[in-house]
Amino acid sequence: MDRREAPDQVAASVDEVLITRELARRPLRNPDYEAQTKAMTDLGEKLAVNPAGILQSVSNLARKLCRADSAGINILEQEGEASRFRWQAVSGPFAPNVLRTVLRDSSPCGVVIARDEVLLFDRPDRYFAELRGAEPRVYEALLAPWHMRGAPRGTLWVLGHTPELHFDSEDARIVEALARFAASSYQMVLKVEAARASESDLERHVKDEAHLLAGAFHDLRQEMEMRAFAQDARDIAEEALRESDRQAENARLAAGIAKRIQGALENISRLLCDAEGATSWTDASRILARAQQELSRVQGIGKVRSKRQR
Questions:
Q1: 247 found inside a domain
Q2: What per-residue confidence (pLDDT) applies to 292?
Q3: Residues 243-268: b if buried by 16+ CB within 10 A, e if exposed
Q4: Is 214 contained in some domain?
Q5: How do residues 183-215 score in pLDDT, each as one tens digit?
Q6: Alpha-carbon gap, residue 17 to 124, rounded angstroms
């Protein structure tokens, strides 16, 4: 009995929905190597121009070359202790599912990764509950694993949403070849993103260093200006102190000189009084001579004061 006519009973094991062996029994269409070569050349050019969009381009090409209804690329990701597949690129009616995630063991992709081979599924929703109720329904799913560093990392898949669509060995060869290209493309994307991140980190680091240096230079300039201002203030204060000391010294000297002059003048006044009361010319002459000497001394004190003030 044709599997298309089999009742949609829930499958007890994954092997009940696997029909990979039928690929060898189905009629094989002639490969169109010319079209495939051109398509791969176009992919290479797109990879050089837009690495980030290459997985979507591979998905579109797989759908076209395999005459599939939908196609896509899933990538295995680790979220804590759980492994999930993310629908990284999707073409066809399943396109709204792009970036959706599904647990590894809840998807045909998990089986393909575990067995590491191309597999064909017939109505996989009979076993995988995650696919039940999906619109449009998946009647056939052909998947191929792709690797990074020797380990399966993702899958490339093509889907048939009608009972009439049948994949063959040529489709299996195409998805396997495109899966290898997807692997190399994805590694290219990762390298480009890493390079851009590194460049961005370097640019950010340079900007941060420049900002820090500018701040340090500003602080240094302010410190130098403050130091110069403080030095000027100290110089002014020291000069003021020196001037104050000079003025204090002059005042002290002036006070001393004034005191000496005052004493001398008092002596002269006393001597003049003595001269007026002298009883003889001799005594008067002697007293006046002393007064003259005292006056000369007063004049000398005045000259010393003038020199010190200068």
A1: no
A2: 72
A3: eeeeeeeeeeeeeebeeebeebeebb
A4: no
A5: 988 888 888 888 877 665 655 655 665 566 556
A6: 6
More confident residue, 196 or 300: 196
Is residue 287 one of the residues assigned to a domain?
A: no
pTM here is 0.63
Please check whether residue 55 lies inside any domain of the structure: yes
- CA pair distance 191, 187, nearest whole angstrom: 6
Domain enclosing residue 159, as ranges: 3-198
Q: Name the pairing type of β-strands 70-79 and 151-160.
A: antiparallel
Distance between start and end Cα atoms, the chain: 134
Q: What is the CATH number of the domain that holds 140?
A: 3.30.450.40
pLDDT of residue 271: 65
Could you give the number of structural domains in the chain? 1
Give the separation between CA 60 and CA 46, rounded to whole angstroms. 13
Comparing 114-123, 170-179, 234-243, the range with the smallest average pLDDT is: 234-243
What gap in Å lies between CA 54 and CA 47, rounded to an integer?
6
Cα 132–Cα 9–Cα 136 angle in degrees, nearest 5? 30
